[in-house]
Amino acid sequence: MIPKETTVFPTKWARKPAAIAVRDLIQKGPLNAVLNFEVSPQVSGLDSLLKLDGPAIIVANHSSHLDTPLLLLSLPDAMRRKTAFAAAADYFFDTWWRAAGSAIVFNTFPIERRGGNLSSTPGDLLADGWNVVVFPEGTRSPDGWIQRFRMGAAYLAVEHNVPVIPVGIKGSFAAMPRGRGWPVPGRPAVHVRYGDPLRAAEGESARDFAPRIASAVSALLDEESTTWYESRRRAAIGASPAQTGPDAARWRRVWESTRPMKSTDGRRRAWK
Predict the structure, then answer these.
(1) Which of 90, 166, 180, 270 is deepest in the core (most CB within 10 A)?
(2) Whose CA is closest to 26, among 106, 95, 99, 139?
(3) Cα separation of 110 and 92, whole Å?
(4) What's the pLDDT at 120?
(5) CA 94 to chain centre
């Protein structure tokens, strides 16, 4: 068992009633307005969240700084107010002003992504009824395709006996790839798709559960590229295509990941 440690930068204050009220105003006001002005977000699969009866770990692919506000603002209000984000300690918590800003706006808490001791914060939050968002890749994709999923989310789910909600985010890399400080012009489309809750089977280890989480996210991205029926049929037989991209030069991988997405379907709805 890896020993746990408390986080260096305290963030409990960001989950006090006053901070929650301020964050709610920021998220539903200027943050939502700016996001809708810069991109065209749409969401589907929110009915999957109705199957929850307690806190959950929300797991998504990660290729852009847009992913955090997209996830937050796509959630129902009650769930959004009780959701915290695991954020890289060496990036978002390297200075006090960045740490405080991300904590108040996005309800982030620091997590080490270079190994070492585990933070006790995720488990404490889950025990207190908070949902926790984890990007298992550990960092943004450099070309829009999924990188290897680490086992942190699966470990938390097994350790604390909570479900995992898989989420596929499509188009955020094309809208704001790594290296850009602002989205590209033209309000590009970005889609957020939620999947049904996953639970570790009795006796299932985190090592065995982690690939199932990755496959669920891949199936959601496959659905964005094809159709609901085709993606479900492939998922049922374990044939969902890997979302790791073509074995090609980086420029080709970037070109493939930024191709226009298919038109919207009847189950997807525009932003609230």
Answers:
(1) 166
(2) 106
(3) 8
(4) 76
(5) 22
* pLDDT at site 270: 53
Q: How many CA atoms lie within 13 A of 269 on its CB side?
A: 8
Residue bearing tokens 């933070």: 119
Annotated domain spans of the chain: 39-258
Q: What is the mean pLDDT of residues 5-30?
A: 87
Q: Are 48 and 147 in contact (CB under 8 A)?
A: no
CB burial readout 167-191, b (16+ within 10 A) else e = bbbbbbbbbbbeeeeebeeeebbbb
What confidence tens digit (pLDDT) does each residue in 6-17 have? 446 788 999 999
Q: How many CB atoms lie within 10 A of CB 69?
A: 19
pLDDT digits (tens, 9 = 90+) for 104-113: 999 999 887 6
Strand partners, 194: 167
pLDDT tens sequence across 173-232: 999 988 888 999 999 999 999 999 999 999 999 999 999 999 999 999 988 776 666 777
Q: Is the pLDDT of residue 1 over 50?
A: no
Average pLDDT rounded to a whole number, residues 87-114: 85
Tokens of 181: 């400080």
Secondary-structure class of domain 39-258 per CATH: alpha beta
